[in-house]
Design a protein that fits this description.
With 165 residues, the chain is of the alpha+beta class. It contains 2 helices and 5 strands; from the N terminus they run ααβββββ.
């Protein structure tokens, strides 16, 4: 009677193998979930940083005039003599600009984010349809587009409309 009770209380080799297989599957599922969550978190950090860098350029350009205040030039891109970021005095000076490492609203380089790059495009757009790009200086509406790259991969692209007034 005692040996029968002992046999029922013990696990067989087959039961132990099944338990190990179930445990292995559970661990594999947890590792897969952990990898997915880590990748999602990394993507969220990249996107959050990209939005921060976009906002830095927006804050930098928001108070700048659309036309050059010194010469009144309507040339898109930096005017003659405006060879440094510190000399940019109107929005269109930022046309085709690229900053790597990126810059902040105070025009300072953010070396801790050296893997990121900001690019800026400034275009005139139709007053009736902001999706239509028109020739430079033919309307009072400017479309500013900022692209943020992380290790050469586009993370974010944001545009906004400014008027020349």
């Amino acid at each position: 009677m005692k040996s029968l009770a002992l046999k029922r209380a013990a696990f067989t080799l087959a039961e132990i193998m099944v338990a190990i297989i179930f445990l292995g599957l559970a661990i594999a599922a947890l590792l897969g979930t952990n990898r997915f969550l880590t990748q999602s978190n990394a993507a969220a950090i990249e996107l959050s940083t990209a939005e921060f860098l976009t906002e830095q350029l927006r804050e930098l350009t928001i108070l700048l005039p659309a036309k050059d205040p010194q010469t009144g030039s309507t040339f898109f891109g930096p005017e003659t003599g405006e060879t440094t970021l510190a000399a940019y005095d109107d929005i269109d000076d930022f046309d085709n600009a690229s900053f790597s490492p990126p810059i902040n609203a105070g025009r300072q380089v953010i070396n801790s984010l050296a893997s990121y790059r900001q690019t800026v495009a400034v275009q005139n757009v139709s007053p009736t349809n902001f999706a239509i790009v028109v020739a430079d200086n033919t309307t009072s509406f400017l479309k500013v587009t900022v692209n943020i790259y992380f290790n050469s991969k586009l993370v974010s692209s944001t545009s906004w409309i400014r008027t020349r007034f």
